[in-house]
């Protein structure tokens, strides 16, 4: 099994000045498509699962993910995204996650420190890495035509240094002006990639960018150049998947298009296009050799496009 901790992935990225893509691939189809494309790209990545996704998918989904990782030669971390409590993080560790995020960024600063420190102590005792967040990242929710529900409070170098020293956290999500979800049509994000450079000079831990979807590539690239080592991607891959599925269903006879093995491949291929683009944007393609040496990449046994052939329509 090439299952590694988030710290292992990010420390190498930090040293070599690139970013690890973290994909919220919250379904079996999204995970399979993402894994396949990252194998082809030889891109180490983080499989991120949000607590609400885990509640929907059930704990046994983790078994599918671990088995998929077990069949690859990629270094991959299984990460709990935005754990809201100590209990969320402990539950994930029991399931086999190798990285957890404790997100108390919306709570008072002292409470954020205390809870993060508690999670770090428990996780480090079992060899699991921890991500936390300071500053606030806006949230557009599920309504892409709505308005930002939270103002962004940009992370300062002074706060980042104090937080890392007091918690011993392995990586830190910072606020540079991004938002979770998609931006409303009447809102332009006020990104400040230079904050990443300022914070990276104050702390010696990998920095994380949440809310990377729906942002200009040049701004994301600038953030990576300024010290960001983990890019969280959710909405962009899910929009591509949903668009591909909608296109197929809108142009098919509902009585004929009923088999999942026929419905999902087109959507998965559309999602893979986004994954490939993000892998390249993060400068993460062909980075596996930085983690360990191996002779030949593992071949993908069944590619998604094969399911569009007559062989699988019987």
TrEMBL record:
Pfam families: F_bP_aldolase. NCBIfam families: cbbA. This is Ketose-bisphosphate aldolase. It comes from Lactobacillus kullabergensis. It comes from the Bacteria. Its cofactor is Zn(2+). Coiled coil: none annotated. InterPro entries: Aldolase_TIM (IPR013785), Class_II_FBP_aldolase (IPR050246), FBA_II (IPR000771). PANTHER family: D-TAGATOSE-1,6-BISPHOSPHATE ALDOLASE, D-TAGATOSE-1,6-BISPHOSPHATE ALDOLASE SUBUNIT GATY-RELATED.
């Amino acid at each position: 099994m090439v299952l590694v901790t988030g710290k292992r992935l990010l420390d190498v990225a930090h040293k070599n000045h690139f970013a690890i893509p973290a994909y919220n691939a919250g379904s079996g189809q999204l995970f399979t498509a993402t894994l396949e494309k990252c194998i082809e790209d030889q891109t180490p990545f983080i499989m991120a699962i949000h607590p609400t996704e885990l509640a929907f998918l059930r704990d046994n989904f983790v078994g599918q993910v671990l088995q998929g990782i077990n069949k690859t030669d990629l270094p991959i971390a299984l990460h709990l995204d935005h754990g809201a409590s100590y209990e969320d993080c402990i539950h994930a560790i029991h399931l086999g996650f190798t990285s957890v995020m404790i997100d108390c960024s919306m709570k008072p600063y002292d409470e954020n420190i205390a809870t993060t420190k508690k999670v770090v102590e428990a996780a480090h005792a079992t060899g699991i890495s921890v991500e936390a967040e300071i500053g606030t990242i806006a949230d557009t929710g599920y309504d892409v035509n709505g308005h930002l529900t939270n103002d962004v409070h940009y992370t300062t170098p002074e706060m980042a240094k104090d937080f890392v020293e007091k918690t011993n956290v392995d990586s830190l999500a910072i606020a540079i002006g991004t938002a979770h979800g998609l931006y409303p049509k009447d809102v332009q994000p006020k990104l400040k990639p230079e904050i990443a450079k300022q914070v990276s000079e104050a702390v010696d831990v990998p920095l994380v960018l949440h809310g990377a979807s729906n942002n200009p590539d040049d701004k994301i690239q600038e953030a990576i150049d300024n010290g960001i080592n983990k890019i969280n991607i959710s909405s962009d891959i899910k929009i591509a998947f949903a668009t591909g599925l909608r296109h197929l269903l809108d142009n098919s006879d509902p009585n004929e298009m009923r088999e999942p093995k026929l419905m999902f491949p087109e959507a998965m291929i559309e999602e893979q296009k986004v994954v490939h683009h993000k892998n390249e944007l993060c400068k993460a393609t062909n980075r596996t050799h930085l983690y360990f040496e191996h002779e030949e990449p593992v071949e993908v046994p069944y590619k998604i496009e094969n399911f569009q052939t007559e062989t699988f329509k019987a």
